[in-house]
Amino acid sequence: MTKYLISFPSEAMVLAPEDFAQAGIDSRAVIEEAKAAGVYVFGGGISEAVAPVLVSADGSVSPEIYPGSDLTGGFCVLEVPTREEAVEWARKIAASCRCAQNCANSCTIRRVRPPWPPPARATCARSTSASRAHSRRSQRRRTPE
User: Per the record, where are the segments of Basic residues compositional bias (predicted)?
Assistant: First the structure.
């Protein structure tokens, strides 16, 4: 299956103030539907309260980001078998948010796994010897004096 990024910039939501609450309720309902269908991967809104930065390979941080890459609004990533299904989910989200959605194939997101198996669980010599001592004590029978 392929992951699709469905998104919109915040300026696309041109609603009357009284309509925002219902749009939020409706869009959360569509996301819950996607979760129930097992296609929701993750999503959220991009905070406009914190400015994005450009981070270089040497770790330097600059407030100057790539031109045209100022991201705002909301997004979700859905994993579906066909582009047509992704477009249908984008349509449902567009109807609930009351604004058109971008729908793009997303890169494959893979879990990074170490190239070697994790080390075997080490046992503490003290706890092992303490455990053996406890077993010996519990196996001894007390003799009446």
Answer: 133-145
